[in-house]
Amino acid sequence: MPLEIDQAVEHIQHLDLFEIRGRDNDQRKILRIVGKHFPAKVVSVESVKKYLEKYIFPELEEEPFSIVYFNARVEKKENFPGISALKSINDAIPVKVRNNLQAVYFVHPGLHSRLFLATFGRFILTGGLYGKFKYISWLTYLRQHVRRNQIEIPEFVQDHDRHLELRPTIEYCLEIEHPRPRCSLIQSDSAFDVYSMRCIA
């Protein structure tokens, strides 16, 4: 049962879901979003928009910023808001904030999230947002954009990253764009375009 809007806004405020802190390597503010903490079962999209309008958007109107989104342990039934909710939140982003957003670093995208965004991304992420997404398959590659001391990475995200290091090479080929040893990928220019792949035995 969803909470009342005011209750939901207060609830979101106490979660480790949204945080503005630190700078990326281009000295832009960072909005960190931890997908696992999205309380999809108890808050409405209107509550999320009200929270963003009150606490987040005002902090992002005056200068460029980037988003670091941690996708680890996001599950459809537990913490995924749904297509219509994502579209509604996207449409609620003020023009000044949208123009200031320079990059969205999508950390640990799985095959399902890649396929979802390849299918629905251009419909949901309008106003130029779609083209600002960059897949980050391992935390090692996040360091190319954000220094370690500029962002707090949840322990479960670090655990997930270590787990990915142990997965078979063929799974890397199916789910990542950053090449690892014994696997080479032919990448496209867009993060969401369909790409070819080739594993070397």
Automatic annotation (TrEMBL):
SMART domains xref list: SEC14
Every CRAL-TRIO domain range: 4-160
Organism: Coffea arabica
Name used for this protein in its record: CRAL-TRIO domain-containing protein
Cross-referenced PANTHER family: OS01G0948300 PROTEIN
Pfam families: CRAL_TRIO_2 (PF13716)
